[in-house]
């Protein structure tokens, strides 16, 4: 069943056009990575030394290394930077301490999600943002268009090595390479650190996309020497600490985030879905929910949905046995007569067994309710389930 899941993931990740390579590409090939087109890049979906289940379970028990250098990195600064970001997202940057980050969403004028993003506040007028690889062109154009209304905002994107280290052994592993006390950096906090043997300063964020503890490292790689140092660091992790660290591909990254109840753009999030409909109302802080607040894109619709509780469907989990639900599968009431929703992502669960899926379902369907899922022309049993499927183990104060 998981072999079929991997085939499905590979098919879903396929794209066309000239493919780019990350600074770690050479290591992926030498390690036997099965390279596939993804968001314009050639990326490893799996490594020959591990199955999908092995890779997934390794992250849950040790430390997995994810090359996420295909993600787009942004620097945004200037006296209007905060106003700009609070126009295109619903975030309140006054609530974010310096050197801290938060999940947010780029919004269109109707309140739909153009992309999800992580915004880091370094100073009052200085921010760092990471957006999704598959949305690069439309994100840049969107930001460029929105910037026209602001005078003093400098925005630039840059490439580099972006490495995620995820799992319960992540801190133990990374601590070997820095004198910084990583135990004092908590989830959502960031810091510029020195990381041996890398010459440049590295941006460290305690965050990730698996539900496990971990870090994301932005390692400068603009010059051949910088890129070589980043590649050397990655190879050192793999070669010198094989009992702790292993490279992990896109297949396990997808099943890990699905178990953790995290959204994937283009599946759980689209331009036709608001944060409220996506069960992400928590992204709109109370300070921005005043009905007179129309300062962020789509505020009128989003704030109305919050006040009137007018949404009809919500993002929620499903569990099932047998064939795994897939994107687009229809969901019906227990008697199979009334269509009440659809699957956005689904996969066998290596951690829990059986299948897990995220879906948009009629709000009347309660947690624990039995439903039917149409899979391969047959109605299969499913159960509405609370997210996440696997409890998060983030390192918090």
Automatic annotation (TrEMBL):
UniProt KW Mitochondrion keyword:
yes
This enzyme's EC code(s): 2.1.2.10
Q: What does the record list as GO biological process?
A: glycine catabolic process
* Segments forming domain GCVT N-terminal: 24-286
Q: Which GO terms describe its cellular component?
A: glycine cleavage complex; mitochondrion
Its Gene Ontology molecular function terms?
aminomethyltransferase activity; transaminase activity
Positions annotated to bind substrate: 216
Catalysed reaction, written as an equation: N(6)-[(R)-S(8)-aminomethyldihydrolipoyl]-L-lysyl-[protein] + (6S)-5,6,7,8-tetrahydrofolate = N(6)-[(R)-dihydrolipoyl]-L-lysyl-[protein] + (6R)-5,10-methylene-5,6,7,8-tetrahydrofolate + NH4(+)
Query: Where exactly are the transmembrane stretches of this chain?
Result: none
Q: Which SUPFAM superfamilies has this protein been placed in?
A: Aminomethyltransferase beta-barrel domain, Folate-binding domain
Question: What does this chain do?
Answer: The glycine cleavage system catalyzes the degradation of glycine.
Q: How does it assemble?
A: The glycine cleavage system is composed of four proteins: P, T, L and H.
Protein family: Belongs to the GcvT family.
Q: What's the name of the protein?
A: Aminomethyltransferase
